[in-house]
Amino acid sequence: MKYAAPLLVASLPLFLLAACGRTEPVGDTPSQEQLTAAANAAAANAIANQQGDSEAANRNYVNVARGFSITFPEGWTIDKAAGNPDGVVYADPGAGADVRVFWQANDKDQTLQQIVEAVSDGAEGVDGDFIGENEYRGSANDGEGNNVAIRLLKQPDGSIVTATFVYPEMLSEQYQTMADTVLNSLRIFAPKAETESAEQPAPAVNASQ
Questions:
Q1: Residues 157-166 pLDDT 10s
Q2: What pTM was estimated for this model as a whole?
Q3: What is the DSSP string of 77-140?
C-alpha cells in the first residue's frame, strides 16, 4: 500500500473540482466519504494496472546473449534453481507442468535430424515434423504419464534452441492449446556477441606488410 498514498493525494483534487463544478442540488453532492472511497478505488485500480504490467514483463523471457525469446503462461513461476545462462524453466504451481527452453552449442555440426534423434532417446511415442531445414515440431510421452510438446530451432551459427512443454497426460485438454501458444512464441535472433562483432569497424590494413 505504500503507493496508494501519493495516488490518493493526486486523485482527490480532481474529484473535489468535479464536485464543486456541478449544478445539482446540495443533497446530491457526494460526501467526503464517497469522494475518499472513489479516490481509493482509483488508486487501487492504478496499482492493479502497474502490477499487471509487471507480471506481463515477467512472462517475457529474453536471452540476449544466446539470441532467443519466449513468452510463458500467466501465473507461472520461474524455477531459479533449474535455470542457467543458457536458458530457463517456468512451472505451473501445483499442476506438475513446466516449460524448459535452453540454448546448446552444436560443436559436431549435427543436422537437425540427428539432434532430434538424440532428443528422442528415452521418450515414447515420438511424433513430429520438420518445417524446413531449421525447425522441428513434435510431441512425445516421457514414460511417466506426461505429454511433451517439443520445438527446436536451429540458429544460423548451427546452435540449437530447444523448448519443451511438459504436462500430465490426463490434463491434455487443459494444456494442449496452451502448449501450442507458448511454443509458437519462441523466437530466435542474432546473439549479442554477433551483433557487437558486426558493429566493430574492420581492422586497418598495414600498408607496410
A1: 999 999 999 9
A2: 0.66
A3: EE-TTT-BTTEEEEEETTTTEEEEEEEE--TT---HHHHHHHHHTT-EEEEEEE-SSSEEEEEE
